[in-house]
Design goal:
alpha/beta; two-stranded antiparallel ribbon; 13 strands; globular
């Protein structure tokens, strides 16, 4: 009897040693916090899937057409709602707020990038900037097993009670070389993670892309696969989106199936990236989109979200097997339909956020979650919701309560922040990975198109970028702290005197404080620096002056703006109006005529020109211009009545 027993034991040992990755459970040296572990009670495992930029307005349409049957089932059986985003609606700030329960002024993730403190070179934001514990830290301290995949600002991967695969892993393609240290914790799982990424690269082949783009030929696919800047071309961008989506899903689903962590967090950026690249091509066709491009790309979003729905079906099955709650959430919504910006490309520098909608989404499904009507909440309640689902106590100073549909918090608030130590920055990441991630952010409109040269490290915090100071100023202004906001904007401009957004934000702050001279000077500098919608900002300022009885200041501002931008029709119309009010009819006619020449389909330009002609006593020319205005837009009863009175 002893010999067979020894044989069975030997076989068991050999079988255990031969199991495929990721079967060997990853454990960390993260110490439990005894009082937290003692306070944790009940709860269920949680599988959280972050869908960046996902929007009910789009997904409900797809669901109604039968494209997302898994989502339909989850909505019917679970509890869903809208999540209010926060300003500025930028992913690193928002997702860190969602996972920490505190805002950017507290967690200190304030931009997409930072400066390398040694070289001054720009690089993607790192975990070293975060100054608040994330939910995976909290769960680890309570003795819960965690698995984290791809969330923002997680490089270098910090120790957890389980597995953490940092966001920068997806920056590596087959051409980018070997990643630097810190991509995965524990480090011995890095080879497994890289193998999953390589498998996704192979999987997204010619046939996979033709399923999305039936017109694609082999030469076009080969060009897309070899494109040095994947997000600068729609076909190459689609391939990269699919590689990242499938790689993160492969990593997460394999690990969750094998290890069944108490808390798994999976982040899919493709649900946002697909919008920035393909929303301009989505139905209905916009005038700026060629018919050929509309035919090529208009169906890509629905095909992508149908694939995402298949992934949701897999996550549902994983949650069922583990007895877990499945939670979906997005950080903001997206403008897909009629309200899309007409003149701002989704990938235009500094305009990406204009495509974001205020309402994201959330959904809870699983044991203990009762179905109900859609509710609403805020993104900063996500952390409290995850803690409540896990049976962990709420956090001192964290936003709450849990979102509608989640259980109420249990126990006294716990001071999680007291146990947090910021991540130590690892050695410099491989330049190829940083370069690819920065190129992606530029192509999607989150960073300026041109890279800035390294800046010598300086100041108390040499890692800070001008944009991080600008974002901090916005947050301080929202918090009712204008003096501190002014200081933050000034810091941004000290680093980059031509930072258009900081120039505008400081200009607005000073205008509200009555410092009009410097406010206007900063506005002109912002206009020269390429401020998005700069002419519209000038027009709004001029109108405010006019309504406040400062017509002379309004005219002077318009004169300065038109000296810099002489071909801006709206500014010409406004200046012409000011001149007409002053009975400077000849100058007004010049402005209106120039505006009509620049915008020959604008009925307002012709109506204004008609009034200028009449002011000069030219009734025939005035009538002709007013009739042209009515021909362009018949729904102008005031113009029609005026014509009838002539």
């Amino acid at each position: 009897m002893k010999r067979p027993a020894r044989g069975i034991l030997l076989a068991a040992v050999l079988l255990a040693g031969c199991r495929d990755e990721p079967r060997a459970t990853a454990r960390s040296a993260v110490a439990q916090v005894p009082e937290l572990a003692a306070a944790a009670e009940g709860g269920r495992p949680v599988l959280f899937v972050g869908l960046d930029g996902a929007d009910w307005q789009l997904l409900d349409r797809y669901a109604a057409r039968g494209l997302m049957p898994n989502l339909v089932g989850l909505v019917r059986e679970g509890r869903s709602g809208a999540l209010r985003t926060q300003q500025p609606p930028l992913s690193p700030l928002l997702w860190t707020t969602m996972t920490t329960g505190v805002g950017p002024l507290a967690h200190r993730i304030l931009d997409f990038t930072r400066r390398d403190p040694a070289t001054g070179a720009e690089e993607p934001i790192t975990a070293a900037e975060r100054r608040a514990p994330a939910v995976w830290n909290m769960a680890s301290w309570a003795g819960r097993r965690v698995a984290v995949f791809g969330l923002w600002a997680t490089w270098p991967a910090e120790p957890v009670n389980g597995l953490l695969v940092a966001d920068r892993l997806a920056s590596f393609t087959s051409r980018a070389g070997a990643p630097a240290a810190g991509m995965v914790f524990p480090p011995e799982k890095e080879a497994w993670a890289r193998a999953a990424l390589a498998a996704a690269e192979r999987e997204v082949d010619y046939a996979a892309l033709r399923a999305y783009l039936p017109w694609l030929d082999r030469a076009a696919y080969d060009a897309a696969a070899a494109h040095p800047d994947p997000y600068a071309d729609p076909t190459a961008a689609l391939r990269r989106i699919l590689v990242e989506t499938r790689a993160w899903h492969r990593l997460a689903s394999d690990w969750i199936a094998a290890e069944r962590p108490d808390l798994a967090l999976v982040y899919l950026q493709g649900t946002d990236t697909i919008g920035h690249v393909f929303a301009p091509f989505a139905p209905p066709r916009q005038p700026s989109i060629a018919a050929e491009d509309f035919a090529r790309y208009s169906n890509v979003p629905e095909r992508y979200f149908a694939e995402v729905d298949r992934l949701l079906g897999e996550y549902r099955r994983l949650a069922e097997r583990a007895g877990a709650v499945l939670m979906l959430a997005s950080d903001h919504g997206f403008l897909w339909g009629e309200r899309r910006p007409e003149r701002l490309a989704s990938a235009a520098a500094a305009t990406a956020g204009r495509w974001h909608r205020e309402e994201g989404l959330y959904l809870l499904w699983g044991s203990g979650i009762e179905a109900g009507e859609r509710a609403s909440g805020s993104i900063d309640q996500v952390c409290a919701t995850l803690l409540a689902l896990l049976g962990l106590p709420p956090g001192k100073g964290l936003a709450g309560p849990p979102l509608p549909g989640a259980p109420a918090p249990r126990g006294e608030p716990f001071d999680y922040a007291a146990h947090f130590r910021p991540v130590q920055r690892a050695s410099q990441a491989a330049p190829a990975a940083s370069d690819e991630e920065l190129a992606k952010l530029r192509a999607l409109g989150y960073l300026p198109r041109t890279s800035r040269p390294p800046q010598p490290p300086s100041g108390a915090d040499p890692t800070r970028t001008p944009a991080s100071w600008n974002h901090e100023g916005l947050l301080l202004r929202q918090a009712g702290r204008p003096h501190e906001a002014r200081g933050a904007f000034e810091q941004a401009l000290a680093l980059d005197p031509a930072h258009a957004s900081a120039l505008w934000n400081l200009s607005e702050l000073l205008a509200a404080a009555g410092e009009r001279d410097r406010a206007d000077e900063l506005l002109m500098q912002a206009l020269a620096a390429g401020l998005p919608e700069g002419p519209e900002r000038v027009a709004a300022r001029a109108l405010a002056y006019r309504r406040g009885g400062a017509a002379a200041r309004a005219l002077a501002l318009l004169d300065r703006a038109l000296a810099a931008r002489p071909d801006e029709p709206r500014l010409l119309l406004l200046r012409g109006r000011e001149r007409l009010d002053r009975r400077d009819c000849t100058a007004a006619r010049g402005d209106f005529a120039r505006a009509a020449a620049l915008s020959p389909r604008d009925p307002l330009a012709y109506a204004s020109l008609g009034l200028a002609h009449l002011c000069l006593g030219d009734a025939s020319a005035g009538r002709a211009a007013l009739e042209r205005s009515l021909a362009l837009d018949p729904d102008q009863p005031e113009v029609r009545r005026f014509l009838d009175s002539l």
